[in-house]
Amino acid sequence: MPDLITAAILGARGYVGVELIQLLDSHPHINLKAVFSRSYAGQQVQQVVKGFSNAEITYQSGDFNTLSSMSLDVLFLALPDGIAKQHDSLWQKMSKNTVIIDLSADYRFDDSWVYGQPETYAEQIKQARLIANPGCYATGIQMGLRPLLPYLQCPEQEVPTAFGVSGYSGAGTSPSDKNNAERLADNILAYKPTGHTHEKEVSHVLGHAVRFMPHVAAHFRGIHLTLSGKLNVPLSAGELKELFNHFYQDMPLIKVQQNPAEIQQVENKHELIIGGFGCSTTEPGHFVLNVALDNLLKGAATQAIQNMNLACAKTHGTQLLTGINHE
Question: Which of 261, 291, 311 is nearest to 118 (CA)?
């Protein structure tokens, strides 16, 4: 049996960091060697992460430069946007045997890093050392549009739109209106109506412009997206669903259903659900569908584990869904 994968997490304070710790703790091929967080430095991980199995591991606040001496197989960067990029030279000079998976937005547009959407970039990820994990909203939008790429109207005629609502965990742990329980109670907040990072990310990845309108609501976790656009061929709702069924038939974490997807279906789960297919009878080609996913899991930590499994497949025998308990 291959040796365990030696892993560390840098920046494990936030909601995604906790999810990542829990997934790595239950993964059958992982030795979680170190967890870094200046906010929790000195505390046992067990005191912060419910159910964590190793009483010996404490949060470290150490110098980033010590990472290169740890002989790591995988390093997860769960840092706020902008921090990883400041240490670019460090990631470049670390051992060629260390896979680095960045969960921030810092490298999603960098061609020297492989874009880590595991269902659609698996072969590239298997050969990669530097992997940029996709954004949460961006994951939902691109999976909702990717089967339609050959059929979308050209952007000069029609640009698909995405109306998104996220739970407030998507705003992180730093206090703001977007995670203020009193402000969000019985409320919904619109923000960044144009030029959102995930709008740029999806347009870049798909090679097709999209428009994205994000909102945050009072629930803690989960994203719901309604996508709308124009096809260059008229399809019925049933034909649209069959197109998606065929496209995602070999991707166990992408579920297709006729009924609208709901946040309650994906909360604390690894699956992304696409449903609610509708096609206009009065405007040929006009389609609507929706997507739901857990922003902390399939939108972040679950994909990071999938990326690790793909990148370590040759050396440690992992499969795409090793350690991921899905339905």
Answer: 311
